[in-house]
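tool_log.txt
---
The assistant was asked to compare two proteins side by side. It first ran the structure predictor on the initial sequence, then on the second. Raw inputs and outputs are pasted verbatim so the downstream comparison step can read them without reformatting.
(1)
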Amino acid sequence: MLLNTKDLLKIAEENNFTIGAFNVTELSNFKCVYETAQEIQAPVIIAVAENEFDFCGKEYFTYIRQQLIKSYVPFALHLDHAHTVEKCMEAIQAGFTSVMIDGSSLPYEQNVEITKKVTEFAHMVNVSVEGELGTIGNFGTSDEGVVNNNIIYTRVEDVVDFIDKTNCDSLAVAIGTSHGLYPKGKEPRLQIELLKEIKKVARVPLVLHGGSGNLDEELDKAARAGIRKINIASEYKAAISRSLNKQMNEHHEVKFALMMPQAIEEGKKVVRNRIRLFRSDGKASLYYE
């Protein structure tokens, strides 16, 4: 079953659970997430970042759409962190049911303008739109080692105005997460009280980016405080990569057809854990009631 994220998150909001959005870069990633969602009957968002979209090619998304449509589990196909109107249009033409336009690094009025523009044409074809206010961190490297770019927290006073002016269907908020896996010694602390204040005024579902590597306790608090979509990518992909590296180094195996099933199982453990933490396992049946 292929839905847009607006319809997917509506049921999650009504029943107080959170849906995982898992970025897939190639077929083994998709297989890992898709099969896990079906095994535990969980609604899931298949997400593709802007650079992944360019890498994969439209034929890849034709295959993914076919698999999602024929499944009894509800899915959405979502473009993550697009920075231009044109890229959102490309994704819609490729059959995506949801797009995120990320204008968070732009001045506020420009963010409003670009988000509104995407929303206007996406809604014409029943595609939902996610906007973003504030910017989450991003771990990178410098001459001194690992650094974390400054997080710009979402301002509560901007939330109502942004949603009203853009008519977006969901809103990504910055409450303390960062993209990628956290380096040793870095422990994220989410601003749950800020999230609660945002939740009081937001009339659309809230989204948390940078969910990989966060403590279960932190993500559970965020989900229970009103986050309805949490993005996961690096965490489960790292599990797949570690398994492949182990098989190559310890067993001198180089045949991917023999290595990948075990690697995918390691990735599934992470995906399964996150879905259960979000309390969305077994919720697929709610979309048939």
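(2)
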Amino acid sequence: MNLFTNLTTILSSEVLLRIATYIDEPIEKTSKAVDGLVYTIVGGLMKRTTSEIGVTQLYNHIQKGRYDGALLTDLAAVLRDPALTNTLITQGNDVISHLLPAMKSSISSMISGYAGIRNSSAISLLGLLTTIVLQALGKQVKEQKLDANGLASTLFAEREAFVNIVPEEFMPRLVEKVGLHQIVAGLAAPARRPTVESTGRTITTATRPAISYDMTDESDKDNGALTKWGVGALIALALAFGGYYLYQNTQKYSDGQTGIADSSTTLNDTIQADTVTRSLAVPKEQAIKTAPKSTSITSAVSTTGVTAIAPSNLTQQMTPYLGNASLPKGRVFTLTGVAYQPGSMTMTIGSAAIITELATILKTYPQLQIQLVGYANDGWGSITNKSLSFKRVNQIKQQLMASGINFMRIDAIGLGTGIAPSIARNDTSAIKRPTLRKIDLKVVVK
């Protein structure tokens, strides 16, 4: 049973009714606020454990606060006592001030606006839910006998469930307010705290290369050391002279070749940059200049002999790139065949075939890791462009996982329209920036 399922069981209808009565808010709004705070606290703690000090603090708070799940045995009965409820709220608010410093006020404001409750009610709920979440985590620590690193790993195991369970209308503001961009994108990982043996010797979790020692006779120890130093000095001197000789000869040779090499490098870099730019801004094929000497890529064959790649064939685009180990990671491809009905999660005809093709590519290159970046400009009503873009790329991720692709190989983020909320102060162009509506694929690991 994962953490969210466990918390859903703990926060039964009777418990929610007790909480609503205590904060004097409607049960519907209270339930929405409770859900939002559970997502916020778990996400915040997940982010906290990306640092070693955060892992230590969370584990110490659970141990010193005696969070072992005993309180959850009959939570409804505990909440019948207003004085005890107030104690739990105070305790939770104190803990959250340490684990998520300077965020209590902003979290309360976010929940107040999201659920439509008073800010004072949101503060009380934040304290109470923090205590409940820590009790649930403490119960896992006790039952599974977890250390600090085990707790962090267990918490991070909830990332996939977290991404899937948070409502689309709440996810953008939660990510922005708590700073969960790296968590949602799958780019963050739990920190590892050094472990200490009973002897007091600290062992770090990082692996170190094995060190081998030559067995030497003790009687020859001093002479052997001098001999080794002498041989080492001679080798270093020989390498220095050899390096200098090679450098001089290489310089003479390369002087005559500099123009050709620079021209080739510029052309190759420009072709790659133009291809990336095309994938980001212009999904359909068109003639693009690639070098100052009137060299261009066309739909047929360019003067350099490079055949243009039709943007509709994902395999044809990616195979030459993935098969060339000398090309760096980070290339971006646009999934031009994947589209959605306006303002919805319904894919257009032909989109499923592109996703199937992508799954085949991922299976062909088992080391390949990708990031799906979604853009949307057709959100309406309560569905924002940012939440819609995230929901769409996450849907594609789920389909790839259903095809047998490990979720660790796929990150999914939504960037809304792709336009920053404000224009930089030094931007005096007054040019209206176009909104985006597409799905990009970035190669993270080849």
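---
observation on (2): Confidence is low (pLDDT under 50) at residues 202-228, 249-311. The domain at 309-421+432-445 is CATH 3.30.1330.60 (60s Ribosomal Protein L30; Chain: A;).
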